[in-house]
Batch of 2 targets.
Target 1
Amino acid sequence: MYLRVDRLAIELPQPKEADPNAAAAVQELLGGRFGEMSTLMNYTYQSFNFRGRDKLRPYYDLIANIATEELGHIELVAATINLLLQGSTRPAAPDAAPLSLAKNLRNTHHFIATGQAALVGNSMGAHWNGDYVFSSGNLVLDLLHNFFLENGARLQKIRVYEMTSNPVAREMIGYLLVRGGVHALAYAKALETLTGVNVAKMLPIPNIDNSKFPEARKFESAGLHRKLYRFSPNDYREVAKIWSGPSPAGDGMLEVVDGPPEGGPVPDLAEVPEEFVPGIAPEELQEIARKLASA
């Protein structure tokens, strides 16, 4: 089962203006081959399919717990896309073609299929694919795949960072660079306990430190690269058997934190009348409010 908290993993800055082409690029980090949908679903199905759970509890706890954090990462990337799209168009009568701007944008699907909001797809408009999920049942192979997946995701986050200077996109990417680094290191440490191979010596992949990115540097200064959040009131406690010891950066000890990060507010997205979103007139809202109050 899952518990849900109505907050984002971090507070995102409010955009100064719409940036729909940046939103199109950020879509890769949500629904691409190495996007957050893939990390979520890989780890989720590996946890569903895990065998020998009682004997191998720390590894099950690690995979299942990180899977839950990835739910919050999907939410964060989607919120970023939505903020980047906000204000792209203005209300007008249908015959005035209020959405005409969209025909020249990178991803017209944002304006046709969702009403200016996130898609379960990549930056080219292709839908996320269940074939991206790898759940072999072999623990070492699954962990090795997860290590590869986290580093592939890191490479693509950096490339999207280099595509846009938008502060909303860069804040989100900076945070995910740090959190993805935690996950890559956690899988490396798990592999070392199973095989004796120090996979962590390969990090960072690509070979550029998070300190080169101001937004990531801020989160590392707060110690987020040393924290593994435990997303449960009582379960997944044995992650501490893997996530422990000194930080590879030499700046402190690795720490398991009980509970989710403090986070930030979920953006309240404005209505988009020209998209018929949410499609309820002001006078209808008053009547709905009256009915809810009387109930």
Target 2
Amino acid sequence: MSQEEIKIGDRVRLIHSDNKFMLLKPGDLGTVWDITTFSLMDEQQIRQIWIRWDNNSRLALLEEIDTFEIVPPEL
């Protein structure tokens, strides 16, 4: 499943982020609760994937900047 197909309610696993201020580490899990888009100065569109992390933090990942994977639902 690609990040293009991500939707509210999906579970995600953090792989990598350059955000040195967040308290998350690779392997942390969370649930998508919102998806927004904003424009940079050069008109580039960036999607923010807002996550409720299992450690009770709320922090967005930025597509094309942060790396994460969608976790398949448990059967």
